[in-house]
């Protein structure tokens, strides 16, 4: 059945022809598109033009589509991404804050190609120009959300700083194995506005000024560093966390505080080409009370954001009294994606410190999961038939009664979660208990545990903590030793290979909390491990041949955090 806005009679022919050709070209590019979207875009636009204009637009579309080639960055669908090439290198930030070493944080490049002579080695280090930034998470200038735009290229890695509020733009396109700080034009924004606009007239390019009026600047190009003052003055935001690229070509980064370090869950918006700070994504005065992570789902006009705490609260360590005082988050915020405003706030029952949030990768999905760190559970959020959103607890990790620790009961502390690209498996790390779990989420309402592996943690045998009562284990796990090295800390950040068969793990959470809960981690440095995944029946097994020991770094032990693949991964890319 054709939509009511389709033209009738002879007028339908060019519109239908244009529609079918656009659809064919899109499918040739392997774009996953919905027929009704093409009907709306192609036919409504055609009907609003004269016959001559429709013909011209038709050939413009043909020219644009045929230039697509492999289209833009990333992959057309999550399932196509699973067929992508095996990862060969990994990027991850390494932190020196709170280690006693006066050196800048740096971006490490690790070789993960088993056929390489440098397998499981750091092959490059890019130091930042400042001290004590606390690099944390990273993102891209563009990703699969721009797959349909052949002009976009995933060649810049965004490195926000959690403590200094500084942002680094790293060039990973020139030489992926040796990243460098992106060099930007030294022209100021005011000078950029004076650059003549090139206009099209009678088929010729003309300028309002002569080319000689544009002077070349002999000054060497500057490194692309966006200083904290840019975010403080333009947005009254700081303490940057999650970076996502948008289909508009812009970059959006979540913030945890205002310029003074008080709680404020806002979002900064950057131009995806110049990286100019454009302002806040949310409407003025519309920030959430607290911030942390976010994930958007444009087909349903929704974004979900989470809460940690005010930077002034968590920056120097964890104080249980702050939990009692209500200074840590327990809400999910539901945003109208088009209007940039909160439309619903979900109070989670037993959902303290909701950190990483993941929608299902299927862009048509109306549900996802969030890991609540302190209450150590996984909560499922979903859209109701009436258009509102709800949340329910679907996994609970029981606390353990212990002796010799900060509190009489030790939570698992779920600090990272991931979904496989086919939306079949959910993974999460219990940083304190020391295990990673794999759940089959074929039925999202009833996840089923199918894999578990212990990779260190606070309850290992021979450590200072004695487990008095445990609802899950009969005995405390053995310490983890890989290649003769006892692994300090517990599993924290995780990243899954595109095909879902390899899980990479690092052990640093946040330097101040590392120092508090795992002092040996700040002395010895963190580790990077690799776990083999059974994607048929479920199951996790450590790869004994892989170990990156960041305790052996040239300037001293470092704390390695989030992992990224050059071509995108399970937590960087969002499909629209």
UniProtKB/TrEMBL annotation:
Keywords: Acetylation, Cytoplasm, Membrane, Nucleus, Oxidoreductase, Protein transport, Selenium, Signal, Transport. Pathway: Organosulfur degradation. GO terms for cellular component: cytosol; membrane; nucleus. Its EC number is 1.8.3.4. Residues 179-220 are annotated as: Disordered. GO terms for molecular function: methanethiol oxidase activity; selenium binding. It holds the Pfam family SBP56. GO terms for biological process: protein transport. It catalyses: methanethiol + O2 + H2O = hydrogen sulfide + formaldehyde + H2O2 + H(+). It is found in: Nucleus; Cytoplasm, Cytosol; Membrane. PANTHER family: METHANETHIOL OXIDASE (PTHR23300:SF0). Belongs to the selenium-binding protein family. Interacts with USP33. Catalyzes the oxidation of methanethiol, an organosulfur compound known to be produced in substantial amounts by gut bacteria. Selenium-binding protein which may be involved in the sensing of reactive xenobiotics in the cytoplasm. May be involved in intra-Golgi protein transport. This is Methanethiol oxidase. It comes from Cricetulus griseus.
């Amino acid at each position: 059945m054709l939509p009511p806005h389709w033209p009738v009679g002879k007028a339908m022919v060019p519109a239908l022809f244009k529609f079918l050709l656009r659809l064919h070209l899109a499918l040739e590019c392997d774009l996953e598109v919905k027929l009704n979207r093409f009907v709306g875009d192609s036919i409504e636009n055609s009907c609003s033009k004269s016959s001559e204009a429709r013909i011209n637009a038709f050939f413009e579309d043909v020219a644009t589509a045929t230039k697509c080639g492999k289209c833009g960055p990333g992959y057309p669908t999550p399932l196509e991404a699973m067929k992508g090439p095996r990862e060969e290198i990994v990027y991850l930030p390494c932190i020196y804050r709170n280690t006693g070493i006066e050196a800048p944080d740096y971006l490490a490049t690790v070789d993960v190609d088993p056929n390489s002579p440098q397998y499981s080695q750091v092959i490059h280090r890019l130091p930042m120009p400042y001290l004590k930034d606390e690099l944390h998470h990273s993102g891209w200038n563009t990703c699969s959300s721009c797959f349909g735009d052949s002009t976009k290229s995933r060649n810049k890695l965004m490195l926000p700083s959690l403590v200094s509020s500084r942002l680094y733009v790293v060039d990973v396109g020139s030489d992926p194995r040796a990243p460098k700080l992106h060099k930007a034009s030294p022209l100021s924004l005011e000078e950029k506005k004076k650059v003549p606009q090139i206009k099209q007239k009678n088929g010729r390019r003309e300028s309002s000024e002569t080319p000689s009026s544009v002077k070349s600047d002999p000054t060497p190009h500057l490194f692309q560093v966006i200083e904290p003052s840019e975010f403080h003055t333009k947005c009254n935001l700081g303490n940057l966390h999650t970076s996502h690229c948008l289909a508009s070509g812009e970059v959006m980064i979540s913030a945890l505080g205002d310029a003074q370090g008080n709680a404020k869950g806002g979002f900064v918006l950057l131009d995806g080409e110049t990286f100019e700070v454009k302002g806040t994504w949310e409407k003025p005065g519309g920030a959430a009370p607290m911030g942390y992570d976010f994930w958007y789902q444009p087909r349903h006009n929704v974004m979900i954001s989470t809460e940690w705490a005010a930077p002034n609260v968590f920056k120097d360590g964890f104080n249980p009294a702050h939990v009692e005082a209500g200074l840590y988050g327990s809400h999910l915020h539901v945003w109208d994606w088009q209007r940039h405003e909160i439309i619903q706030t979900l109070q989670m029952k037993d959902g303290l410190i909701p950190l990483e949030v993941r929608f299902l990768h299927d862009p048509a999905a109306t549900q996802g999961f969030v890991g609540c760190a302190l209450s150590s559970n996984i909560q499922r959020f979903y859209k109701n038939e009436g258009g509102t959103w709800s949340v329910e607890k679907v996994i609970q990790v029981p606390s353990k009664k212990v002796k010799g620790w900060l509190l009489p009961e030790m939570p698992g502390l779920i600090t990272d979660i991931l979904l496989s690209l086919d939306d079949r498996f959910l993974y999460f790390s219990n940083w304190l208990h020391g295990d990673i779990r794999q759940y089959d989420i074929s039925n999202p309402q009833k996840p089923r545990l199918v894999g578990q592996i212990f990779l260190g943690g606070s309850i290992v045998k021979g450590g200072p903590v004695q487990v008095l009562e445990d609802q899950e284990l009969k005995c405390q796990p053995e310490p983890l030793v890989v290649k003769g090295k006892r692994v300090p800390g517990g599993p924290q950040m995780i990243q899954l290979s595109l095909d879902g068969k390899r899980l990479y793990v690092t052990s640093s959470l946040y330097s101040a909390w590392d120092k508090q809960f795992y002092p040996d981690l700040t002395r010895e440095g963190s580790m990077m491990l690799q776990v083999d995944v059974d994607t048929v029946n479920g199951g996790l097994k450590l790869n004994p041949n892989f170990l990156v020991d960041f305790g052996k770094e040239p300037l001293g032990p470092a704390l390695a955090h989030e992992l990224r693949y050059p071509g995108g991964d399970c937590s960087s890319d969002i499909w629209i």
